[in-house]
Amino acid sequence: MCLEVDKATDTAAIKKAHRKQSLRFHPDRALDQDEREEFVEKQSQLNDAMNVLLNPEKREVYDKAQFLTGMGEEAVRTFESHKQPEAYKNFDLSQKNIDPTKMVRHKEKADTKEMEVNLTFKQCMTGIFQKQEVDRRVRCSHCKGTGADKHEHHHTCKYCNGRGKWADIAEILPGITKEKNYVCDYCSGTGKHIDHDHTCDVCNGTGLEAKKDEILMIIKAGVFSGYKHTYEDMGDFDEIDHKLPSGDLQVTIQCPQEELFNGIVFSRQDQNIIARINITLVEALHGFNKSITLPDGHDVLVTKQGITQNNEEIQIAEAGFSTFEGRQIGNFIMIANVVITDEDRTSFM
């Protein structure tokens, strides 16, 4: 971080370093306009750095991400972005002859892109901290989204005057009109027209190109299927209006309901982990101590005294999936499967 402090620095030293660097890069000390803009940006970075270092949770996220992936700042932004965007705002009431109850919402950014990520049983138990590749459709780097090989070959559509739609006004009652809008067939709703044989060679005239990007996924232990997290501005650009900012990326986590591990089928019920474990007839009659390794690698000791019935459930409290998004920590539930061998049958005859 730009404050130039040690990892173990205390709060007082952090604030002192912030004051020192703030004075060093104060905009009033700049020699010219370019340096002033640089110092203003530096001030913003210093404030962000202090905000992270003085917040124990953010600091832990930054340190871990920086050590493992070198993406500490990206990890903090991900940590802070647990919020849902507003669904509707800025309705357009300026158009005439339109029923005011039929409000048209202007898009402020492209639509949200959805993606599913499948985790293993173990990953759902332990959580994940990893980079995830994302296939995106972004504004063409060559034509900047126009779709034309050169700017002079990109014109306003003469059929819709750049609106991207046709307006049909009909009189439904005397003195009352209603407007219907249709997408312009000539420009496909873009409001622009590209000269024939002058489309961009990189995007073939679409204005968009494929790009592989990365997000840093930080998912806590105990996650369940259907959990969603939004990564701002990491979606695709709009297929028609390439000037809009890119949309968000909404990732939905999918978790398996069961997994075979070390010859044992472990299944999930809410935050509980359930497994059918074989026990011998002797163990069923006299009790047992069993150490069972769960899919995340840690061992659970199951102890039972006296007689154990077949299909009897034995619970170990708080040995299941961790608490997550309001769900309480689960238990490990062992279902006893009494195995009677031929030797057992012979000894009882």
Layout of strands and helices, then pairs:
Layout: H1 11-24, H2 33-53, H3 56-68, H4 72-80, E1 91-92, E2 104-105, E3 113-118, H5 121-126, E4 128-139, E5 154-156, E6 165-173, E7 176-183, E8 192-194, E9 208-219, E10 228-231, E11 249-254, E12 258-261, E13 264-269, E14 272-280, H6 281-286, E15 287-293, E16 299-305, E17 313-316, E18 332-339, H7 342-347
Parallel strand pairs: 3-11, 14-18
Antiparallel strand pairs: 1-2, 4-9, 5-8, 6-7, 10-11, 12-13, 13-14, 15-16, 17-18
Helix pairs in contact: 1-2, 3-4
Task: Explain how this protein is built.
This protein has 4 domains: 11-80, no CATH class; 110-141 and 214-254, HSP40/DNAj peptide-binding domain, CATH 2.60.260; 151-193, no CATH class; 258-347, Urease metallochaperone UreE, N-terminal domain (HSP40/DNAj peptide-binding domain, Sandwich), CATH 2.60.260. The protein is 21% helix and 32% strand. The protein has 7 helices and 18 strands. The strands form 7 sheets. Strands 12-13-14-18-17 form a 5-stranded mixed β-sheet. Strands 3-11-10 form a 3-stranded mixed β-sheet, with no helix packed on it. Strand 6 (165-173) and strand 7 (176-183) form a beta hairpin. Mean pLDDT is 82; it is low at 82-105. Residues 1-66 form the J domain. It holds the Pfam family DnaJ_CXXCXGXG. InterPro entries: DnaJ_C (IPR002939), DnaJ_domain (IPR001623), DNJA1/2-like (IPR044713), HSP40/DnaJ_pept-bd (IPR008971), HSP_DnaJ_Cys-rich_dom (IPR001305), HSP_DnaJ_Cys-rich_dom_sf (IPR036410), J_dom_sf (IPR036869). Residues 127-212 form the CR-type domain.
